[in-house]
Design goal:
This protein is α/β, with parallel strands linked by helices. Helix content is about 40%, strand content about 20%.
């Protein structure tokens, strides 16, 4: 029986082609919705797996680096860094947001690194890059700051550091050498406006693969020869020693060993004796030491040097000072910072700066570390 509408007229039947077309779009919509659902589900699963993997890696890394990071650590992955940058953009006012965007654009166009962008964006933090990760540490107000500004230093045509700031600063050029630099003509060195030399005396063995690692010490075979040569050429002579102690007792042993080696040359050592703090590799036996332990060993070493009549100094890079040591406990000792290039990135007070590790100096056939001693006033 034919269907009628409510006015009693016969209702038109849809044509066969219309029914086929309607069925086609019905199926197409079903397929589209299923595809969207599957893609969303796949994305959710992928995100979940990535999150689980990232969390696992973060936990493993945090366990390994716990000793180095200290109580005030903040660890960010590359993704978290991007999120932090986005938060900075969104939380700023329109003017500040525009400034940040322009700054990031300028850094990217000039080939700037992610680290340089982060350091300019987060000026209240010290940004340390280590092992492909970014660490943010608040700048401590309790620690004396250096008075220098960005742009206070530049490199001359021959690669020497020069001071361009307004304060009265005396800058003296120096080098740091070891047995790896071979035989040195110290007369030629002194004629190249070099005022001092930091001479390596060796260091404690920290590699866990070394059979004699337990309290072992390696002496630099050229130490005595370099001390005598630099002194006769009229240079001020300082010493560097790489700390490898895994206990306070070992720090005392290493300090006493160094003092014994320096005894015949004590009158010639007119510059500081620097204890060198290296960030250990994962395989080093010192890798698990805490910030408090490292600080205690450095203090022990420096106190021994003081008792023997030397002027202690602490040498390291940004990661050494910020990640490994309690800076508040080391205020009384001079700092020697390793920071290559003229762009200084170290907020705290220091008196010596290694600005190059591949310098050239007459009288030395190999690349050599270039340093500057800075006296204010």
């Amino acid at each position: 029986m034919d269907k009628k509408d409510r006015n009693g007229r016969k209702a038109d039947k849809p044509s066969k082609s219309g029914r086929v077309r309607a069925h086609f779009w019905y199926q197409a919509n079903i397929i589209l919705l299923c595809s969207v659902t599957l893609l969303s589900l796949a994305a959710s699963v992928l995100f979940f797996l990535q999150t689980r993997t990232a969390e696992k890696e973060k936990n493993e890394l945090s366990g390994k680096l716990e000793a180095l990071e200290g109580d005030q650590k903040t660890l960010y992955t590359e993704e978290e860094v991007q999120e932090k940058m986005e938060q900075a953009r969104s939380s700023a006012g329109e003017t500040e947001r525009h400034r940040i965007l322009m700054q990031i654009q300028s850094d990217m166009e000039s080939g700037g690194s992610t680290a340089s962008m982060l350091r300019s964006l987060f000026s209240d933090d010290i940004v340390v890059v280590s092992g492909g990760k970014y660490y943010f540490y608040p700048i401590l107000n309790s620690v004396l700051r250096n008075p220098f500004q960005s742009g206070d230093f530049s490199l001359s045509d021959d690669g020497r550091l020069q001071y361009d700031g307004k304060d009265r600063v005396t800058l003296q050029s120096g080098i740091d050498v070891s047995e790896e630099n071979g035989d040195i003509d110290w007369t030629l060195v002194s004629e190249d406006d070099i005022a001092f030399a930091m001479i390596c005396a060796g260091g404690g063995v920290s590699s866990a693969e070394d059979e004699e690692a337990e309290g072992g010490i390696t002496d630099d075979e050229k130490m005595g020869e370099n001390i005598e040569g630099a002194y006769r050429a009229g240079l001020n002579v300082g010493i560097s020693y790489i700390l490898g102690a895994a206990s306070k007792e070992e720090a005392e042993v290493e300090a006493n060993h160094l003092i014994g080696r320096l005894k015949p040359y004590q009158s010639r050592v007119t510059y500081p004796v620097a204890v060198w703090v290296n960030v250990p590799s994962e395989t080093d036996r010192t890798a698990g030491q805490s910030r408090a332990e490292w600080t205690d060993y450095v203090l022990t070493f420096c106190e021994k040097l003081e008792e023997a009549g030397y002027q202690p100094m602490i040498y390291g890079n940004l990661a050494s000072f910020v990640m490994m040591l309690n800076m508040e406990d080391l205020e009384k000792y001079d700092k020697w910072i390793s920071n290559t290039g003229a762009g200084l990135y170290f907020p705290y007070q220091f008196s010596m700066w290694q600005y190059s590790v591949n310098g050239t100096v007459p009288g030395i056939t190999t690349e050599v570390g270039l340093d500057a001693s800075l006296t204010i006033g």
